[in-house]
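Page 42, continued from yesterday. The earlier attempt failed because a stray header line got pasted into the input along with the sequence. Redoing it now with the clean sequence only.
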Amino acid sequence: MTTGMVHSFALRIAIVGAGPAGLALAVHAARSLPDAQITVYDARPPERDVFRDPRTLALSLGSVQWLRRLGAWPDDAAQPIVAVHVSQAPPTLGAFGRAAVHITAAELGVPLLGAVLPYGPLVSTLQRAWQGAVDAEPQRLHLRLGTPVSALKDVPGGVEADAGIAETFDLAVIAEGGVFSDQTRKSLTHDYVQTAWVGSVVLEGATPGMAFERFTRQGPAALLPLLPASDGASRAALVWCVDATDDPVRELDDAQRAAVLNTIFPADAGRVVGVSPLKPFALGLNAERRLVNGRQVRIGNAAQTLHPVAGQGLNLGLRDAHVLVQALRSGADVDAALRRVERQRAPDRWGTIAVTDFLARSFTWRWPGLAAARGLGLAALQASGPLKSALARQMMFGRR
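This time it went through. C-alpha cells are written below.
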C-alpha cells in the first residue's frame, strides 16, 4: 500500500480502464484536482500498439471541443462531420415517403457537428497526454498497464482495489465497458436481436464531411465520413444493423454487399465501390440504474451500453467523466460530490437511453403504417427549424 509514503493526498482515485473515457477522465482530473493522487489500471499489455486499432468512433462537437482543451485531440486523424442526412430506405409511398432531415454545421453556426476517427489514434493521443502527466508528477500520478483489477470491494470510507496487491482508494471509477455480447448483465437489459456489421467502404462521388443514416426495415444503416485514403479515394465508416434471426448480410461476398449498400443509401452518399471485411456485433441495451454505488462510479459503456442508432455511447461517457471531475473540484466532500453527479447526469443519461431504446425497438415492430408514420415524423422535424436545431444541439452537447 502507498498510504505510508511521505506524500499525503486529499483524495485518492483509482480509474479502472485506459480507454477513451478513462484516460480523458484521468487527464482532466490531474489538471483540475491538484491534491488528488490518481492511478489508472488496465489489463492491456504496455507493449501493445493501440495506435493501429481500426475501430471507428463518432464524437459530437462537445466531445471534440473538450478533448481539444485537454490537448488530446488528434486533428490529423479525424474527419469533421459538416452535414448529416437522415432518411428512410426504401422510401414509403405517399406524400412523406421521401422525407428526410438535413442538418448542417453552417445553419447552426458551428464549425462542425462532430468528427469521425479510428479508436487507435484517439487512445494513443490520450495515453501520451496521460504518460506526460505521469512523468511530470510520478509521486501523484500512475499508469499501470498490464495490471487488471480483479475485484473492487467497499471498505469504510473508500474502495479496496485488488490488482495483485490490494490498495485502498477514496473513489474507484469503472471505465472498462466492452461490447454487449461480452458483458455481465446489468440492472436494465434488453437484447434487440440485431447484428451490427461494422467496417468501412470506398466511395465514388461522395460529398466530403457528410454523414448519412438510413432507416431500413431491418434496422438503421450509417455511413460516417473518414479521412481519404492515401490514394485520395473517399472512405466512410459503415454501421449496418440487421435482424440477427434473418441476417441478409452474413452470406454475401464483398461485391454483393457493395451492391446492396448502393440500393440502401441515396445517390448523394456516393457509390460504394469497395467494402472492407465486416465484423459482426450483437446489439442490446445494458445499463445500470445508477452511476454511483457507494464510492464506486461507472462511466461510459461500464454504465450504459446502447444501440448505435444515435451514436451517443462514447459521448455519454465523456460527459460522465467531465461532470464527475467538476463535482469533485466543487469543494464538497466525496459523497456529496457523487450525489451531485448522480443528480446532474440523470436527465442527459436517461433521455439518451430512452430515445435510443425507442428507436432500436421500433425496427422490430411490424405495425401497418409505421414506415409512413416515421416518414411523417422526419418531414415534421425538417419543417420545424427550432425543433431541429434543439435536437441537433442536444446531439452535439448533450442535455443541459
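Notes: Confidence is low (pLDDT under 50) at residues 1-6.
Reminder to self: strip header lines before submitting.
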